[in-house]
Amino acid sequence: LSVGNYIGMHVALLAAMNVIGSGREDLVQKEMEDLLKAGESEGLGGKANDSKKEPKYENAVQFALDKMIHPGMSFLNGIPLPESNDMRSFGMGVNDILQYEQRHIMELAMKGEI
Q1: Residue 54, C-beta contacts closer than 8 angstroms, at least 6 positions apart
Q2: How far apart are CA 18 and CA 14, in angstroms?
Q3: Beta carbons within 8 Å of 39's beta carbon, 6+ residues apart
Q4: What's this model's pTM, rounded to 2 decimal places?
Q5: CB neighbour burial string for 67-82, b if at least 16 within 10 angstroms, e if fewer
Q6: What is the pLDDT along the chain (114 residues), one digit of tens a residue?
Q7: 46: alpha, beta or left, given left = phi > 0 and alpha = psi -120 to 50?
Q8: Nearest Cα to 9, choosing from 92, 1, 56?
Q9: pLDDT digits over 4-27, tens only?
Q10: What is the DSSP secondary-structure string of the chain?
């Protein structure tokens, strides 16, 4: 199963759940595939794929393994949210992430980059 096939099934599920507006399935699938292909050209997908340049499932699994990504993880701007059943420590972890994001944005603003 290629990543392209997986994306197709994922988009079909989103459409069935009415998350994607009617008639937008092809556009959403193309955007998702384009994102994957752009990442692949930057080394995200690992080794070069076949002549079709379609990302393969194995490359996605290898990427997840390399980045220590596993099912059930949640992210905020690419930063993994803490995994904890204790709401207090989860809240503290999220607070740390939000403080980091706020500092980063302020630094960019002070440098005039945003």
Answers
A1: 2, 3, 4, 33, 37
A2: 6
A3: 45
A4: 0.40
A5: eeeeeeeeeeeeeeeb
A6: 677 888 888 888 888 888 888 888 899 888 888 877 765 554 444 454 444 566 677 788 888 888 888 888 888 777 788 877 778 888 888 888 889 889 999 999 999 988
A7: left
A8: 1
A9: 888 888 888 888 888 888 888 899
A10: -BHHHHHHHHHHHHHHTTSS-TT-HHHHHHHHHHHHHHHHHTTTT-S---TT-PPBHHHHHHHHHHTT--TT--EETTEEPP--S-HHHHHHHHHHHHHHHHHHHHHHHHHT--
Nearest 5°: phi and psi at 84? -160, 140
CA-to-CA separations, 31 to 49, 94, 96, in angstroms, rounded: 19, 30, 32
Q: How far apart are CA 80 and CA 86, in angstroms?
A: 17
**Contact status, residue 25 vs residue 11, Cβ threshold 8 Å:** yes
